[in-house]
Amino acid sequence: MAAISSVKATSDTHNGPDVEYEKRRRFNRRVSRGLVAPALIFSIALTQIPFVVTIIFSTLNWNQLRPDEIRFAGFQNFVEVFTGGDFLPALWSTVLITSSSVILSLVFGLFLAILLDRKFPGRAAARTLAITPFLVMPAAAALIWKWSILDVNVGMLNWGLGLIGIDPVAWNTDLPVVTIVMLLTWQYTPFFMLILLAGLQSQNREVLEAASVDGAGAVRTFRAMTLPHLRQYAEISTLLGTVMLVQVFDPIAIMTKGTGGTKTLSYLLYERAFIGLDVGQAAAFGVVTVIVTIGIATIALRTMFKVFVDGEVK
Amino acid sequence: MRKLTGALLSGFTWFWILLAFFPIGWMVFTSLKTETDAATIPPTFAVPLSFDQYREVWDRDFAPYLLNSLFASITSTILVLAIAIPAAYGLSIRPVRKVQDVLFFFISTRFLPVAAAILPLYFILKTIGLLDNVTALALLYGAMNLPIAVWMMRSFFNDVPREITEAGQVDGANLRVEITRLVLPIVAPGVAAVALISFIFAWNEYFLALILTSDAARTLPPYLASFVDGRGQFLAVLSAASTMAVFPVVLAGWAAQKQLVRGLAMGAVK
């Protein structure tokens, strides 16, 4: 919009009113199309075509062990997806793991953001250390947590718990969901923290000071002014965090291998295709997973567009 | 009194920060121990430290995997920049509604689960003989990071004052000059941020690498698991390998902290 109005303004002063403006607009549109096309083509070729092929695969009776017997199976694979008894538990695991990790990361992220918003000795260093879990390669994090932190015998967590008199816990085998959620919360808290901290720091300091001069206590100021201001930031971080966490695969493959209620849709699909070797079945799971994700993503996108396109958060 | 509360609060903050950082600090510390010292309970602190485990990691053929990781991450980052910068510029100069559709499309590709596309990718690559090929992996990482890059770059281009590009056109500067001379210097920090984010995501990617590579093109994330040894002690050598694997990205992320938040929020938060 800004572009249109400013272009119009200049062309008006140049005395060749709408003709020049139209020319400029058409030129811009052509250039724009040329510049965007490579990205669009590349993106469609590498991300959309595979999805279409997945749909085709999902109608086939195709096991990799019998590559000569590929036949058309109609909706048979989908019937098996819904009657096989694996889909609903996987959907539940996905929802459970994603939502607990998102909520916990949001809470811890807000907690750390509030602490880091204060000026204190070594604040820059503290911030640097605090973001590191999000930078660490997830595969490395999963391995280190599994063997060095959560191991029954030599894990640091059990040692720490032992100091306060709690018996060792076999995290990976007895509490697999807790294990995964714990790791994901650790990894994603910095992500939420960074966005919420940006929100806290963008507050109008003068207004906050005025409030405290007028006698509003810290708690009241926080609830009446900071929380509403943070809402948008919480929304953005929750949406983007959910999108990333719903697809999580690495810690499940490395730590629990889908046991004990950690078999999420991504992992189930992987298992069917590359361990079970049933291509048609796995593709059907893929299609259903995409439909579920589109449901979540549509809600997410609608909210995001309100925030992103109408105006960046200031 | 107020001073005391402040000091307590600072101590409290540092306690939580150090707790969160502990697994990483412990990984680095463990990597400097011997295997026996690494696997004792209660944990050992005053033990001789050395870089022996790092030599051990290097001797176990770390280099080819490191090179694959570097190649896939750098190539995909260059590719993303080459495609995303023009696209984002195009989207920012085009004053029409369709921009929203295009942006919507890009972001939706990022929202769809990669797992659902993995089967066709696997069979297509297998058919054309590009399974276990690091260039193919780099192309896929490019597609993976493209939407974030387009969104981020667009937000940086939107910051460029209109007067600057307009002035260029009045002077008769052509488009390429406009972009390279006038606009790019202003958005240079944005380009750096996009490059870093793309590099970080590509470097850390595990799922595609696990399935689409086996040996020749294998990158570090799936390779790390091979340091887990079912029979003997492996904590120290695993820690050393992990430390080496996470090092480049952690450094890059630390250096780019300021841009990181904007990148992670796809340009929506400054």
Characterize the structure shown.
The complex is a heterodimer of chains A (314) and B (270). Chain A is mainly α and 314 residues long. Chain A has 2 domains: 2-57; 77-308, MetI-like fold. Chain A has 14 helices and 2 strands. Chain A has a two-stranded antiparallel ribbon. Chain A is flat. The relative contact order of chain A is 0.12. Chain B has one domain (63-233, 244-264): MetI-like fold. With 270 residues, chain B is mainly alpha-helical. The model of chain B has no long low-confidence stretch (mean pLDDT 85). The interface between A and B is large, with 112 and 109 residues.
> Helical percent range of chain A?
over 70%
Largest sheet of chain A: 2 strands, antiparallel
Strand content of chain B: under 5%
Radius of gyration of chain B: 23 Å
The topology string of helices and strands of chain A comes to: HHEEHHHHHHHHHHHH
Oligomer: heterodimer
Helix/strand order of chain B: HHHHHHHHHHHHH
Strand content of chain A: under 5%
Unreliable spans of chain A: 1-15
Reported CATH architecture of the largest domain in chain A:
Orthogonal Bundle
CATH top level of the largest domain in chain A is: Mainly Alpha
Roughly how many Å apart are the termini of chain A?
19 Å
Poorly predicted runs of chain B are none
What would you call the shape of chain A?
flat
| Mean pLDDT across every amino acid position of chain A | 82
**What is the name of the CATH topology of chain B?**
MetI-like fold
Distance between the termini of chain B: 36 Å
Short structural description:
With 314 residues, chain A is an all-alpha fold. Chain A is 76% helix and 1% strand.
Key features of this structure:
heterodimer; A: 314 residues; mainly alpha; MetI-like fold; 2 domains; two-stranded antiparallel sheet; B: 270 residues; 0% strand; globular
